[in-house]
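Hey, resending since the last one bounced:
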Amino acid sequence: MSEDQFMGSLYQRFPVTVERGVGSHVWDSNGKEYIDCMGGYGVALVGHQNQRVNNAIKEQVDKIITVHSSLYNKTREEFLKTLIGLAPKGLTQVHLNNSGAEAIEAAIKFARKFTGKKGMVAMKGSYHGKSLGALSLTFNPKYKKAFEPLVEKVSFASFGDIESVRAAIDDDTAFVILEPIQGESGIIVAPEGFLQDVRKLCDEKGILLIFDEIQAGLGRTGRLWACEHWNTAPDILCLAKGIAGGVPMGATLVRPDILAAMSKGEHSSTFGGNPLSCAAGTAALKALTEDGLIENSEKMGKIFREGLEKLKEKHTIIREIRGKGLMIGIELKFEVRDILMGLIDKGVLMLYSGRNILRVLPPLVISEDDITKVLHALDSVLTEEEQKRDVQG
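The structure tokens again:
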């Protein structure tokens, strides 16, 4: 593909050139149709060509595209009111940026400035981005080794083990950061009680709790916020991916006293809060909350996982099914590259986590009929793989 001549080898590529998409379907340059369980790594949250988002973008383009936050803008004001109206309790201030990594970078600075401390505790298995600060909080050594030294004073605790978190905290700890459901490491769901225990521990120690819901938030898990499954709110919440229906945007939601610790000029973003992203963001939030997408995520996620559990009974090469809503991991007993290519042949796009986990992040508009087709395709590909392995064995 010609893109490879110019973009280096930074991305794991698949042999599909996507031309257009509608809902949970995309078409390649040859006209072949695919059910999209990749969803732009979770960005296509409200579906491709969502009419609310498309209309908002078209209307905003005819007004103005960029207004720096040193000036006021009514489109941005509407988005902020909508977002804060939906935010977890106590998070009434927000910094608008452009990506998940930027949302994390802002959170690091806000927490350090507010507490006056430098120490950071993240989780083993975490993924928070690849910019220098976010990368420092990301666990997997393969992403980090070539770029050391990174930001200092980061400790990693075992996800789900409150005593490990307690042991990682010291007198200079500014915050604990975690994903309520770890995405990159294979859809690892926080065990019951863990988020509540971390919240209690942070309160006891006087340190901040940051939730990274860049992948798990905004209805993906069948609740607006993943942390709602455990009735726990953070001090800072990081969002991005589908927040603006596919237009680049990130947001760092904070308690007002935390943001008040920042002085003018200490953190800003040239493109953050631009009217185009804000118009799309308001439309995406309305689609989620007014068009039944969160409810559909819960319902379709249940149907999907039930179907996958049936496949697990049939195919011994499936080790475990995990997740909530339409954030699903399928752990296999071998590498998944051939499975992904087989699914592409059958018109299904799917993600991976590591070498042996399939990751399912479809648009929240996906239908039961599409899920049935995906399950049939996966059944067929797994059968072919098992037969091939029997022959080779």
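The chain has two domains: 2-49+292-389, 51-291.

Sorry for the duplicate.
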